[in-house]
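Can anyone check this?
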Amino acid sequence: MLQDLDDPDWILRADVGRSLSALPGLGLRFDALVKPPQLPALLRLAERHPHLGIVIDHGGKPPIAAGGWEPWARLVAALARCPRVECKLSGLVTEAGPDWTTATLGRYVDHLLACFGPGRLLWGSDWPVVDLGGGYRRWVGATAALLSGLPDADRAAILGGNACRFYGLR
């Protein structure tokens, strides 16, 4: 939960780096719960630890409710260029505010798809927190609509296959 730390570069400390270096050998991945201010440090982390599997939770928490785009979009694109970094398509509805629509989320989901492709996006429910943003069923419906233009195999990968692969469940 880096998002709540005062120091956006905390993850770059040497003692933390030693711990993170051990994760690949243990078959573990790093889930990064970050907001846009922590994305530059996460990028440096990914460059320092090229063998560490990293997943950005909640799409990096873009400022959807405020209509914000940069620097989030640029930083997510830079992280996507790191081959061991993946991204969770989750938590967006709580970042979008109470009046969100599928159209509100579309620009952000399209950007994540363009950056990570369907092979490195992992769907997440964000339950029970999703209940603060309209509920699980509403998010599932929005997800279906947002991914409806993809081939069945790509939707299946995002909705479960990628998570199984990333976390070593198959």
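Reply from J.R.: I decoded it. Helices lie at 14-22, 39-48, 72-80, 92-96, 102-116, 136-146, 152-166.
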